[in-house]
Amino acid sequence: MKDLKSQASKSTTPGKGGLTPEIQSRIGHQLRAMYDDVVRQGVPDRFAELIKKLDAPGGASQVETDGGSNDNNNGRD
Amino acid sequence: MPLTDSLRDDILAAVPSLRAFAISLSGNADRADDLVQETLLRALANIDSFQPGSNLPAWLFTILRNLFRSDYRKRRREVEDAEGNYAKTLKTQPSQNAHLEFEEFRGALEKLPQDQREALILVGASGFSYEDAASICGCAVGTIKSRVNRARSKLAALLYVDGAEDFGPDETVRAVIGGSGG
């Protein structure tokens, strides 16, 4: 029986983790395609408006988080 | 630092990639937008703790990731609602073939452990350095590297089964059917 694996990798050299550069780049390509599909949608109105509201004096109080006032988790803990 | 106009613009500019990150993490567009909204509110409420000149996207991603983590733990106990509507909620519908491949890829991504998935997305899609990704995830750079490598290997195993595409469609179809039929 033929060794299918060695046949498959004949033209390419396995890279990190035994992946061929071809498969690595394919994964990277699909990942970015999926991601960029969302990025291209730009900024939805709800977020533009949310941030704009904070321009107005006292704007911050209009958009308080639900019960989040004593939660200081700012992501740097 | 105070919320200046330019800082506000920078936050707004980060929104598209925050959404992409949130969708990649949660697999659900509605939930992702709620996560982004909460991230923005947290960021603005805590803007004083942002260090001027430091990496704003990394700071925002850190907030979103932490929110997702706590949200995820909460929701796991709740109903398993009709999720997996990610593709349906996208505004741009990929063509049929691309769509299938896309669905397959997304499905494989969801099978990865959360640690590996977020590391792969941050480095492979968001374009963060290993160092920034490590700081976002609160772990060592070496840990991020090994998570990214494991994520890639697992995706390759799930999707390409040792380069199955080289054997022609029959092998690929059989592998797919064999993997999901039951």
From TrEMBL, chain B:
One of the protein's GO biological processes: DNA-templated transcription initiation
Annotated GO molecular function terms are: DNA binding; sigma factor activity
Does this entry carry the keyword DNA damage? Answer: no
InterPro entries annotated for this entry?
A: RNA_pol_sigma-70-like, RNA_pol_sigma-70_dom, RNA_pol_sigma70_ECF_CS, RNA_pol_sigma70_r2, RNA_pol_sigma70_r4_t2, RNA_pol_sigma_r2, RNA_pol_sigma_r3/r4-like, WH-like_DNA-bd_sf
Q: Which residues form the RNA polymerase sigma factor 70 region 4 type domain?
A: 103-155
Is Mitochondrion one of the keywords UniProt gives this record?
no
Task: Tell me the ranges covered by the RNA polymerase sigma-70 region domain, including all copies.
Answer: 15-77
Q: What are the record keywords, sorted?
A: DNA-binding, Sigma factor, Transcription, Transcription regulation
Regarding protein family, the annotation reads: Belongs to the sigma-70 factor family. ECF subfamily.
The protein depicted here goes by the name RNA polymerase sigma factor
Say which species the protein is native to.
Bradyrhizobium betae
